[in-house]
Design a protein that fits this description.
With 480 residues, this protein is mainly alpha-helical. It has three domains: 125 residues, Rossmann fold; 117 residues, Serine Threonine Protein Phosphatase 5, Tetratricopeptide repeat (Alpha Horseshoe), CATH 1.25.40.80; 176 residues, DNA Cyclobutane Dipyrimidine Photolyase, subunit A, domain 3 (Orthogonal Bundle), CATH 1.10.579. It has 21 helices and five strands. It has a five-stranded parallel β-sheet, sandwiched between helices. Helix 6 packs across helix 12 and helix 16 runs antiparallel to helix 17. The longest helix has 22 residues. The protein is globular, with a radius of gyration of 24 Å. The protein starts with a strand and ends with a helix. The structure holds flavin-adenine dinucleotide (FAD). One of its GO terms (molecular function) is DNA binding. Its EC number is 4.1.99.3. It comes from Thalassobaculum litoreum DSM 18839. This is Deoxyribodipyrimidine photo-lyase.
Length: 480
């Protein structure tokens, strides 16, 4: 009888353990993807993710058809859809790769129990992480709350299992099963079509992911450690959306990075490679945190922050979202996000700090905006990172360490290349004032065609005053 292969965040053929096991089991394989917004609730994919998902599914469908068994697309509650497809096809096994979002683990557990009760084989695999969240723990068997021991523990495990090759052919079931049309799912924006910048930036799908990795390993890894904080350069891999949708596996990345390092420097873990793989492990660490703290996306891990006197500031929030705060590095980041669905990590930290500390707006507002606008929006990474910046997470930057957006800009975008690209109305300002246009001389402003308050906003808050206000707010929760 056929095996139902339930695709989820593993939209690839390469190194896909559930798929490989389904092929090994013998018999036909029925690939299925379910758009299950109901079960995901508030955490159903946001706008930018839906755009990505459409193209990723298109790519996966092509690859599966070529391999011999077309992808079935269905909308609805996963449990119902799986039941229906089993009825239609006579499948006697369902295989999938695990997800770690609390709503998904709860749902998947329920589905597995129900299938087993009906004597249908149900098996899940690890297709998304180097190691399962329960495999990297302290000597006492408890979850690790600090990154460096976590990273040491991953390295101590040695190389993760070698990646599995993509199956060349899949046996299709004798009778075809109905699929919905991807276009009917309306995952793409229409009016207005805001996805032009996304189309120009990305190639969703397995081939696009492999190409990014190859280019990154060829060109950028040796300088990664030195340049990964410079947003004006293409020094990082930009693999995050591909990793999120599982178009490439972290195991594939791990082994490819070490091979390339060995070939380059006779050392499988040279500086650039170690730095890059440790970032891959920040992803693992976030998944670990989410798995062990299912309320991570909603509740501050340091519980006292639940009493923090956040401000309600709709105008400030809108200015931040639109990239009109008057702080060039923050605005550049927010506009890069709007245009491409991605933002450089350093600038994510600066922009997030500005929202949380300069505007005193709840980190969940920022988390929600990123959720809707990032193509790599990821429940674990997004929640863990927002809590990290807010100072309320595990191994977080302390709240009192408040980024100065001018100094951050000057340090990491010294020549203003990044600001000039994303805030073109400031492009002609000299380097010395590009991160603080309000200090430019009238001559400099007029020569650059800048009129503050008109062509570009004045700062919506004074950073020094905002910093003081944030520290005072922090004092109020310390006293409780
Ligand atoms: P690279 O530097 O090439 O790193 C390789 C991979 O490692 C990334 O693709 C990513 O999967 C992982 N990684 C790198 N840095 C981190 C990190 N700090 N935390 C966790 N994983 C990391 N990343 C997301 O994937 N999804 C999110 O929703 C997300 N939200 C964030 C929100 C905030 C406020 C901040 C500060 C960071 C957030 N990050 C998120 C983490 C990080 O900014 C991105 O993963 C990174 O910028 C992606 O670019 P890259 O692929 O070029 O990274």
């Amino acid at each position: 009888a056929p095996t139902l292969l339930w695709f989820r965040r593993d939209l690839r053929l390469d190194d896909n353990p559930a798929l490989a096991a389904a092929v090994t089991r013998g018999g036909p394989v029925i690939p299925l993807f379910v758009l299950d917004d109901d079960d995901a609730g508030d955490w159903r994919p946001g706008g930018a993710s839906r755009w990505w998902l459409h193209h990723a599914l298109e790519d996966l469908a092509k690859a599966l058809s070529k391999a011999g068994s077309p992808l079935i697309l269905r909308r609805g509650k996963a449990a119902d859809v799986i039941d229906a497809v089993i009825q239609e096809t006579g499948a006697d096994a369902v295989y999938w790769n695990r997800r770690y979002e609390p709503w998904a683990t709860e749902r998947d557990g329920r589905i597995k129990t129900a299938l087993k009760k009906r004597d249908i084989e149900a098996q899940s695999f690890n297709g998304s992480l180097l190691y399962e969240p329960w495999e990297i723990v302290s000597k006492q068997g408890t979850p690790l709350k600090v990154f460096s021991p976590f990273w040491r523990a991953v390295q101590a495990k040695g190389d993760p299992a070698a990646p599995l090759a993509a199956p060349k052919t899949l046996r299709a079931p004798a009778t075809a099963t109905g699929s919905e049309g991807l276009d009917d799912w309306s995952l793409l924006p229409t009016r207005p079509d805001w996805a032009g910048g996304l189309r120009a930036t990305w190639t969703p799908g397995e081939a696009g992911a492999a190409e990014r990795l190859e280019r990154f390993l060829d060109e950028a890894v040796p300088d990664y450690k030195a340049k990964r904080d410079i947003p004006g350069t293409a020094a990082t891999s930009a693999l995050s959306p591909h990793l999120h949708f599982g178009e490439i596996s972290p195991r594939r990345i791990w082994h490819a990075a070490r091979l390339a390092s060995e070939a380059r420097s006779n050392d499988p873990m040279d500086r650039g490679t170690a730095s890059f793989l440790s970032e891959i492990c920040w992803r693992e660490f976030s998944y670990n945190l989410l798995f062990h703290n299912p309320d991570l996306p909603e509740v501050s891990l340091k519980r006292e922050f639940e009493d923090f006197p956040w401000r309600d500031d709709p105008d400030g929030l809108t200015a931040w979202q639109r990239g009109r705060t008057g702080y060039p590095i923050v605005d550049a980041g927010m506009r890069e996000l709007w245009h491409t669905g991605w933002m450089h990590n350093r600038v994510r930290m600066i922009a997030a700090s500005f929202l949380i500390k300069d505007l005193l707006i709840h980190w969940r507002e920022g988390e929600a905006w990123f959720w809707d606008t990032l193509v790599d929006a990821d429940l674990a990474n997004n929640a863990a990172s927002w809590q990290w910046v807010a100072g309320c997470g595990a191994d977080a930057a302390p709240y009192f360490r408040i980024f100065n957006p001018v100094l951050q800009g000057e340090k990491f975008d010294g020549d203003g290349a990044y600001v000039r690209r994303w805030v073109p109305e400031l492009a002609k300002l000299p380097d010395a004032v590009i991160h603080k246009p309000w200090e430019a001389k009238p001559m400099e402003l007029s020569q650059a065609g800048v009129t503050l308050g008109k062509t570009y906003p004045r700062p919506i808050v004074d950073h020094a005053g905002a910093r003081k206000r944030a520290l005072e707010a922090l004092e109020t929760i310390k006293k409780r």
